[in-house]
Design a protein that fits this description.
The chain has 258 residues and is of the alpha+beta class. It has helices spanning 3-29, 153-177, 183-211, 216-257, and strands at residues 36-39, 45-47, 52-60, 75-83, 88-92, 97-98, 105-110, 119-129, 134-145. It has three domains: 1-31; 33-145, Macroglobulin (MG2) domain (Immunoglobulin-like, Sandwich); 153-257. It is rod-shaped.
């Protein structure tokens, strides 16, 4: 092994060790020995404009024992809810500790007003003990959807739009390369392109309104209806041109026979 290869090997080893040590630091900084473990259901979606209850179980990192109603008096848990852009939706201090039905958890009960924005949300829970100076924190992101479930129709809609755009490209290519004597077929391709483009625009409108009904969805809805009226006008113009072209063709053929 040459001296240059040894230098490369040493540099690569240092790089790998530095990456591993950084990962270890990241883990230990979020998993302290003297603190709290916070366990909670990992939710992915919440239904739009519907109340929701977040529940958290807190355990001692040192002993593994859960916080009970005797020790919970010294523990304060604070709940923060954010939008994706960082805007605070709500803050809740000193969450209640629920002992009914042997639940033994800290609970953040949020009403429907906190979930009136569709899309990604984020919450953070911080628990601190003022006497023992121990603490812990967790955070999670989730989506607010119309149904409360992940909607695969958005993905299907995107594939549908891509398929329609592919067909539109094919029709435009065929219309451009078609001989001028088949002008009526070109008009037919143009009509099909406008119809397919309108369908694609409609699918985009539906997806946008489903995910952003109060902001971008309203804008897309207005734009769609304006576009639709314009398309109806263009359909009428193309149809008239098609009829005029047929009469002109018949007239030219009659002149040839005469």
């Amino acid at each position: 092994m040459t001296g240059k290869n040894r230098i490369y090997l040493i540099l690569i080893s240092i790089l790998i060790l530095s990456i591993n040590s950084y990962a270890l630091v990241q883990l230990t900084s979020t998993d302290t020995v003297d603190g709290y473990i916070i366990d909670y259901p990992k939710i992915e979606t919440i239904k739009f404009n519907e109340s929701h209850e977040f529940n958290f179980h807190v355990f001692s990192q040192a002993t593994g024992l859960p916080i009970t109603n005797f020790t919970a008096a010294d523990v304060e848990c604070i709940f923060h809810l954010y939008l994706l852009n960082g805007t605070h939706v709500c803050n809740m201090d000193n969450l209640p500790y629920i002992t009914a039905d042997n639940r033994l958890d800290f609970t953040a009960s949020l009403n429907a007003d906190n979930f009136t924005e569709l899309g990604n949300h984020f919450y953070r829970l911080l628990c601190n003990n003022s006497k023992s100076m121990l603490g812990g924190a967790v955070s999670q992101s989730f989506d607010v959807t119309l149904t409360g479930n992940k909607n695969p129709s958005d993905i299907l809609g995107i594939f549908l739009i891509l398929g329609i755009l592919g067909i539109i490209s094919l029709f435009i290519y065929m219309a451009i390369n078609l001989d001028d004597k088949f002008y009526y077929i070109k008009f037919l391709f143009l009509l099909l392109v406008l119809i397919l483009f309108s369908i694609a625009f409609y699918v985009i409108r539906e997806i946008t309104m489903a995910n952003y009904p109060t902001t971008l969805g309203e804008i897309f809805n207005i734009v769609f209806w304006v576009y639709l009226y314009i398309m109806l006008f263009l359909f009428l113009i193309i149809f008239i041109m098609f009829i005029v072209g047929l009469f002109k063709k018949e007239k030219d053929e009659d002149n040839i026979y005469e």
